[in-house]
Amino acid sequence: MIHLSGMHAAGPKNPLHGITLEKMVTDLQAHYGWDMLGRMIKVNCFNWQPSIKSSLVFLRKTPWARQKVEELYVDSLPDLKAVAEGRMAPMNDEAEKTPEDFSEEPLPSPNDEMDKAPEATPQEP
After folding, report:
1. Which parts of this chain are annotated as the region Disordered (predicted)?
2. Does residue 10 lie within any of the structural domains?
3. Distance separating alpha carbons of residues 50 and 100, to the nearest angstrom
4. 106 phi, psi to nearest 5 deg
5. What CATH number has the domain bearing residue 39?
6. What is the Cα–Cα distance from 79 to 106, expressed in whole angstroms?
7. Most buried one in 61, 82, 98, 108, CB count within 10 A?
8. Which residue did the predictor score with more confidence, 68 or 97?
9. Side-chain-facing half-sphere of 123: CA atoms under 13 Å
10. Is 76 contained in some domain?
């Protein structure tokens, strides 16, 4: 793993030079998917109702998490380039899904089970 203590320095030798945080998160999500990304970097913005927008808000306010994303991005650059060149498929199992596969249905509430009336049990005569 590459140590990024000086990675914020500008210059063409910096592998992150010219790469925005949004591009990093977008590329990593497209390559790994939210599930795998959330397992690799254990932050809620990747594990609980993930989105690019909410992830960017969190990562911009949380230097240690941003550093982990930067490190993963640099470590993943060879794979990301291979995918872009068509020499490798993304590791994301969500890559094959179409937008229709992702429904906008709300998640069930923990209280849903409590709201249901108990089923009537048949009584013997």
Report:
1. 86-125
2. no
3. 18
4. -70, 150
5. 1.10.720.30
6. 34
7. 82
8. 68
9. 2
10. yes
- Asked whether residue 45 is domain-assigned, the answer is yes
Each residue of 64-90: pLDDT tens digit? 999 999 999 999 998 888 888 888 888
Asked if residue 98 belongs to a domain, the reply is: no
Nearest one of 41, 3, 5 to 25, comparing CA atoms: 41
Range of the domain at 80: 21-93
With CA atoms as reference, report the closest residue to 27 among 37, 17, 18. Answer: 37
Please state the pTM of the whole predicted model: 0.65
Percentage with pLDDT > 90 across the chain = 47
Number of domain units in the chain = 1
Which pLDDT does position 37 carry in this prediction?
95
